[in-house]
Amino acid sequence: MTSPILEARALSRHYPGGVRALEGVDLRIERGEFVSIIGRSGSGKSTLLNIVGGLDSPTGGSVAVNGTPLDFSDRRALISFRREMVGFVFQQFNLIPSLTARENVEYPLLFNYRPPAERQEKANALLAMVGLDGRASHYPGQLSGGEQQRVAIARALVADSPLVLADEPTGNLDSATSEGIFSLLQRLNRERRVTLLVVTHERELASYADRTVEMRDGRVVA
Amino acid sequence: MNSRLAEFFQLAVRQLFRRKFRVILTVAGIAIGVAALVGTVALGEGIRTQAVDAIRTQSDLTLIEALPGVEGNVLQLVTPTRAAAAANLPGVAASAPVVRGTFATRGQTYVQVIGVPADGLEGVLHPAYLRGSGFSPGSNEVVFGAALGEKLQRYEGVRIGDPLVIIRRSYDAQGRPVDEETTVVPVGVMEERGDAYDQLLLMDLDLAVRLGEGDGGYSGILIRAEGPDRVFSVAEGVRGIGLSPRGSFEQIEAVNRMMDMVVIFLGIFAGLSLLVGGLMIASTMITSVYERTREIGIAMAVGASEGDVMEMILAECAVLGVIGGVGGDLLGVLFAAVLNVLGGPFLASRFGDAFAGLLDSEIALVTWPLLAAGLLLAVVLSLLAGLYPAWKASRLNPVEAIRSGR
Ligand SMILES: Nc1ncnc2c1ncn2[C@@H]1O[C@H](COP(=O)(O)OP(=O)(O)OP(=O)(O)O)[C@@H](O)[C@H]1O
Ligand SMILES: [Mg+2]
Description:
The complex is a heterodimer. By secondary structure, chain A is of the alpha/beta class. Chain A is built from 7 helices and 10 strands. In chain A, the strands form 2 sheets. Chain A has a 6-stranded mixed β-sheet with strand order 6-7-8-3-9-10, sandwiched between helices. Chain A has a 4-stranded antiparallel β-sheet with strand order 2-1-4-5, covered by helices on one side. The longest helix of chain A has 18 residues, at 175-192. By secondary structure, chain B is α+β, with helices and mostly antiparallel strands. Chain B has 2 domains: 2-57 and 254-404, no CATH class; 63-227 and 238-244, no CATH class. Chain B contains 12 helices and 12 strands. In chain B, the strands form 2 sheets. Chain B has a 6-stranded mixed beta barrel. In chain B, strands 2-3 form a two-stranded antiparallel ribbon. The radius of gyration of chain B is 34 Å and the shape is elongated. Classes of the chains: A alpha/beta, B alpha+beta. At the A-B interface, helix 2 and helix 3 of A face helix 1, helix 9 and helix 12 of B. The complex binds adenosine-5'-triphosphate and magnesium ion (MG). Magnesium ion is lined by residues 45-46, 167 of chain A.
């Protein structure tokens, strides 16, 4: 039996002043799964995503990636985890305004020491895949919100990270555009076997996923 | 430089390009500082070069006279041992011991006399003769400096080849003056040299000693350095054997000391404006890091290490420094050009003929090393100014950075 791509055990994140953003979260995600997380505002969704993405550290519990525990005290390990294992999509203003769409997609590879030619080729292919081949040299300010999120998704895939984490990627988009983004995510999951963990507020969108995890007050309730 | 750093520089240029106006204002600070520094140093160096050139062309720079020195309150006489040591100093082309004394003519003209070996006269002093030639060894022949020859001819009718009586006055045990007369034969008049030799009467060392000069020792050693570039090391060597070197090189030393002071003093003021420029860069970069908090957080989320973030911010600072340095160099060159066009005539008109040379020469001297130093200083200063903002950026918490609305 292979180990899950991501396994969180008894994860908690307490803030000074008694705020318990996460409290004993267990979460197991198999390779190639498309999991959505829903829950009210403040229920700890972003906190969970940031921790399993290596951006934040838990105050308790553990995270294992492919069966290997993530050492949150090892900065170098966290950086290479972020470089190689995860791609992030945030709610808004994901992109670097001074870079073109293609350069934004390439951006993670800059920190992965890949040669420019390879990066460009890869970025162009991914932009084509998200349907933005014509907009490669446009700046974020020249793209619509939906287009920007497509660029961000392409960026999340560029380092061939097996795990993509998206925190309310459609939070600022109208429902038609949101549907488009989620069906793109679904397609990526099916065609490229990318493991997806996507936070959303809306149940209809959550239904694009294979499975939905619901959070309340820092705990997984369903 | 690795290619990634090169790309950071490319990114830095583009980041800065987005904020053209702010960049221009920021960079102006450092550019003005560099320009002030380049301008003042160029002016100082220009004046120094002018003065040194003037001394070089107007005087016999490679001629040094070693006089008795003082070491720990003890007079160090010019002994034959020291004369031999001086002759063997590196950079010495020729040397000759001398004795000095004072004589009078019957017409009451006082004459400073220097006794030098005949071969030393030719080998060390390299005299050029207006009339006649040098004295021969062991003879009572003498040579006049240009001004002395002119004076004696005009007021006493002394001519080459005519015997001349010179009087040496000494004092007996009772303190009464005793005059001794000697007849010498002038055989040559040197061309004008523009220094003390113009007033001297030169005779053979043996003759001078025979006439009672030198008190059994030498008054000094005439030294000819191999070239202008060896003069200062020879002078050091002379000091090293306990004697005191004299010559027109001292004027150059004096000019250098004075110009060092002037350049350092002006440089401090220019440096202050550079400091202001550095503070402006620090302030701009702190603002820039603050405004781009979210961008930096995203870079971290996609894999930038703390070192990467620092490098990116410092690359921007380096670019600011290069722009400021190049701009400052250009401004400095412009400043120097203005000084050369307007300053020379101004000084020449204020200070008269002595500065006439300034009319057609450069009083501000911009050199490549000076420009390179200006650029380097600007870049180093910018990097220093950027250290704190870069460090701050690298320590940002990615979660908070991404959450921040900036
Ligand atoms: N730096 C912090 N200091 C203190 N409390 C914090 C901090 N960050 C988050 N929290 C708290 O942790 C809890 C969980 O926050 P989190 O952002 O994970 O919620 P969320 O489910 O993503 O909400 P939303 O849907 O509004 O994005 C909230 O109560 C929040 O106030
Ligand atoms: Mg959230």
